[in-house]
User: Fold this.
Amino acid sequence: MPTTDTLSIATQPVTTSRISELDFNNIEFGKIFSDHMLVADFKDGAWQNPEIMPYGNMSLSPATSAIHYGQAIFEGMKAYRSVDGDILLFRPYDNFRRLNISAERMCIPEIPEEIFMQGLEQLLRLDAAWVPPTPGSALYIRPFMFATDDFIGVRPSSNYRFAVFSCPVGAYYSSPVRVAIETTYVRSAEGGAGYAKAAGNYGASMLPTRKMQEKGYQQLIWTDHKEHKYIEESGTMNVMFVIDGVLVTPTVSSTILAGITRDSVLQVARDMGYTVEERRISVDEIVDAHKAGKLQEAFGTGTAATIAQIATINYNGHDMDLPAVEDREISNKVAAHLDMIKTGQAPDPYNWNYRINL
Assistant:
């Protein structure tokens, strides 16, 4: 249900929209941004002055503490054009809760629900024309928070900025990806911040990812930090496998992000009657399943890609090719059903969609 307007959020609309720059039939991911953004600042111990303004650059001091010490977090979420023309936000309350989990871990004050949800709704009403009507497309929404003290002593900032902007997107991956199992670098360790969507987690992943890309693989599969024996995530996504008809995925832990798409895929798969297991998965189990012809599917799950099919998994120099995507039952059926829920073409028994009536 739409939020009740209990908060005064000033709005400064653009004088001329940039939407004419967008070709809805040819959308590059993350290249063109919608007209407006939501901004609020934490000062004097409270979040203040939420405002919707034209999308644009922010002025920052060279001493801005987030740049030096990494107090920065973000979320990723999507809005879809429903079949009746309204906007459907997919699981925004879950993104709100996870943003505040990340905030707690990074010593950032939590954002109030009314700023997040009411601001998001007002922002999307203003930029409703940017929600693509084309199949397979969506409006990607990026909430984020970062420290804003102009101070270079090592301590939590006293001031922060929360902002939300959006961009129309098509498919994140245009074809199934080739991945390699990482056995040197680690994404996260127990007691660290792997479960948070902290900017530093992604910055630290770029060197090992580039090294894999130089070898011909688009992404990597992270393994545990102790022995490199157990599967954790795939690139910036959760990872799932179908082994002998069973959908298996690593259990969420302090080193693995609790993916909202991950949770959605598992719920839909269970309700479709498939056997689902959340447990520790060893690299050896994947290798053995492939040798036995039982590794039927592998894919990543995340907001940007929803389901990203994996074509090949490399381990210690050996490529394991998987069955053709069109022959994969579980991931294809679950992805199709999720897309129908997100666009209002199928019932939403989980109350995942947040409808914005236009």
